[in-house]
Design brief:
By secondary structure, the protein is of the alpha/beta class. It contains ten helices and nine strands. It has a nine-stranded mixed sheet, sandwiched between helices. Strand 1 and strand 2 form a beta hairpin. The longest helix has 18 residues. The chain starts with 5 loop residues before the first strand and ends in a 10-residue tail after the last helix. The mean pLDDT is 96.
Length: 292
């Protein structure tokens, strides 16, 4: 144990190192796990980073094992950070009953409704526990930080970036839940975590948050990839609503729709390099061309 971090495992990868950690979280009140990929450049200097928020049912391992991101991250000198998707061990009755609520489904917000409010505080965890800890303990420059995510994690990336202007310098998402107030996944989660409170829901709805803006927050643009073979597209994701909100707010957005691609990691891994290069450009990594 060093600097409050318990190293669970580490693995050499593309000249860098893939690590898995556990630490005690004040915001959550329980131990939490996360993973970090440190590129080879981190042996001699602090490096910028990209935080990836995973989707429903996933853990801190899913992205690192399935997305194929380490090779390009090593080339760019970009660290990768992947937190878990919810608290573990809270012991709340029913928290494991549904795959889309409770365990593995924290929705990256602070719950206000009992019993969830005691531990399901993922927004505070990420912003006030995890990032300061990483900044202190690892060779990562968290002032040069991008954020991305998939599905529920895409929702988290969009909403956290909009709720905390200036904290993240770049933004992208894969098949994000763009308007959770208007889809079954979001309505279930928001009712359970936030109660029947439309004004609270709007504070965690990317399309609603973007609708409040009158100018661009990310001048270099937001990148979103969406598969047209995604079975959740019409019922759960609604990227057109976020696209419309960005247009009204004069926020540059590249929303790419891909025929044949579904909601899974074959889709994500196909376009991961484009996202890493998108973030590298925005984070000022020299000599990097954005993905096409």
């Amino acid at each position: 144990m060093a600097d409050g971090l318990l190293l669970l495992s580490e693995h050499a990868s593309f000249g860098g190192v893939q690590r898995f950690y556990q630490h005690d979280s004040a915001a959550i009140g329980l131990p939490m796990r996360f993973s970090v990929y440190l590129p080879p450049q981190a042996t001699s200097q602090s490096v910028p980073a990209l935080m990836y928020l995973a989707g429903l049912t996933c853990t801190e391992e899913t992205f690192m094992a399935k997305a194929g991101a380490q090779r390009v991250a090593a080339e760019l000198g970009l660290a990768l950070i992947a937190p878990d998707t919810s608290p573990r061990g809270a012991g709340i009755a029913g928290e494991a009953d549904s795959w889309d609520f409770g365990l593995g489904a924290g929705f990256y917000l602070n719950a206000t409704q009992a019993p969830w409010s005691a531990h399901y505080r993922m927004e505070s965890y990420l912003l006030h526990d995890l990032l300061p800890l990483i900044s202190e303990a690892l060779p990562i420059d968290t002032q040069r930080l991008g954020i991305t995510g998939h599905s529920m994690g895409g929702h988290g990336a969009l909403t956290l970036a909009l709720r905390h202007p200036g904290r993240f310098q770049s933004l992208s998402a894969f098949a994000p839940i763009c308007a959770p107030s208007q889809c079954p996944w979001g309505q279930k989660a928001f009712t359970g975590y936030l109660g029947d409170a439309p004004e609270a829901w709007a504070q965690h709805d990317a399309s609603a948050l973007m609708g409040l803006r009158s100018s661009a927050l990310f001048a270099q643009g937001i990148l979103i990839d969406q598969g047209l073979g995604d079975k959740f597209l019409d019922t759960q994701l609604h990227p057109h609503l976020f696209e419309n909100a960005c247009a009204k707010a004069n926020q540059p957005l590249t929303l790419r729709r891909h025929a044949g691609y579904d909601h899974g990691y074959y889709f994500i891994s196909t376009f991961m390099e484009d996202h890493l290069r998108h973030h590298a450009v925005a984070l000022g990594i020299g000599g990097v061309a954005a993905g096409g």
